[in-house]
Amino acid sequence: MTDDGPLGILAGGGELPRRLVAACREAARPCFVVAFEGQADRATVDGVPHGWVALGAAGRVLELLRGAGVREIVLAGAIRRPSLLTLKPDAKGAQLLARIALRAFGDDGLLRAVIAELEREGFRVIGVPDVLGSLPAPAGRLGRVAPDAQARADIARGVEVARALGAVDVGQAVVVQQGIVLGVEAAEGTDGLLARVASLRRDGPGGVLVKLAKPAQDRRVDLPTIGVATVEKAAAAGLAGIALEAGATLVLDRAGVVAAADDAGLFVEGLDLR
Known about the structure:
- By secondary structure, the protein is of the alpha/beta class.
- It has helices at 16-26, 58-67, 84-87, 91-100, 107-120, 128-131, 149-167, 189-197, 228-236, 254-264; strands at 7-11, 31-36, 50-53, 72-76, 124-126, 140-141, 173-177, 180-184, 208-211, 225-226, 241-245, 250-251, 267-271.
- It has ten helices and 13 strands.
- The strands form three sheets. It has a six-stranded mixed β-sheet with strand order 6-13-11-9-7-8, with helices on both faces. A five-stranded parallel β-sheet has the order 3-2-1-4-5, sandwiched between helices. The protein has a two-stranded parallel sheet with strand order 10-12.
- Helix 1 links the parallel strand 1 (7-11) and strand 2.
- Helix 8 (189-197) runs parallel beside helix 9 (228-236) and helix 9 runs parallel beside helix 10.
- The mean pLDDT is 89.
């Protein structure tokens, strides 16, 4: 972790922002959390300096960060993108939306535009791995279970499809069973994808969830992520395992993920795609 004054954490939902807060505590580095209303969990800001902000209130975000002395920022956590009709931006947010509207389409395009605006305002944007260096998945098998020949073929098909999806900034995950694409990730996220494919599974060997970063993705934000809940949902969907891009997919609670996968009889494998 670099040391450039308080770390600003722009927090969406899920466990990841809390892990960043914990890492700052362990490193004795102050932090300030900008928690987005309707997105971040209240547990994320427990005991730390913070401010709650509506997604469209860009001016308030900048005011809070500067007031806290923040120069370095990390973006973390799931954000459910609202419609433009419900966003209600402040004056600064409206200016930002006007600038990014012409170039931001999918999530990756939008996040690149947001990073560019933060850097325009004088902040340095860093990635989650810069703070939590041990999270990216390693190459190879993470637990006891190994993929069989059918699963390897499904992984190869999943990589092909996920790369095509990522190239047009659609999603980061795909489920393949016996060569058939059961579902691809879109606005519903990985949890929604797994819930959807549970009713589409075929008889025979279970399918595979494949998660990759998008080819042109800025690796500082929105890296594909799994945790124990992902393993549990994959097992509930009848999958045989999960394949992740090594070095580019974050594994929250690796020991817990491995234990859950072993208990469920699922494989979890990091793919070296270099």
